[in-house]
Amino acid sequence: MDTDLVNQVIDTAQRVVASGAISANGHGNVSLRVTGADEMYFTAGPSLRNHAASAVVRVGLDGTLREGELPPIQGAVVAMHTAMYIDNPDVGCVLHTHSPYATAFATAHRPIGCWVEALAMFGLPTGVPVAAYGPRGSEHAVSNIRAAVTPGVPAVLLANHGVLVFHRTPDLAILVGGIVEEAAQAGIGAAAIGGAVEIPEELRAAALQRAMVFAAQGTARV
What we know:
16% strand
């Protein structure tokens, strides 16, 4: 096992926890694609909180365990990680959490609309779709995820389960995971005062352009 990659996985898990976009018990998984190889490093522990380096495993993108010990309950969700890597060659990190507000939308089978500017700025101008329910780890579940994901959209809600985020780097995946949770929280809060209002479609591209200008200038998100 590559120690540097293990440490990167643990660091990513710690940053997901620190972001707050996670359930109280810390359930979830982090994986990183191994550059130049058809495999990933994957968190096999029961929680991302205080995840042990010894519980990181090496898994082929065909789902074959190559190194480490993978409990069945964690192994059941490996396929949705590998599917994102196989379908999206530019994806380098996949995160799965049960972040509370996003999971509320997932359990209601309701997509998150583009009512928060950051969604339009960071790759989700049409909001976050919902993948229909399939039993944990089943081919049905993975097929539903693949059907719900559209090109360029880096997140999907998993009906009756949680949220899946996938992006080029851990930094971007963590950022998007936090934005999705923020948008879900805002949507639930807005429901008490008349409901969230989506950004007009013709203005969402302008938000993206604004983000690109900030990126070019090295300006932090505002």
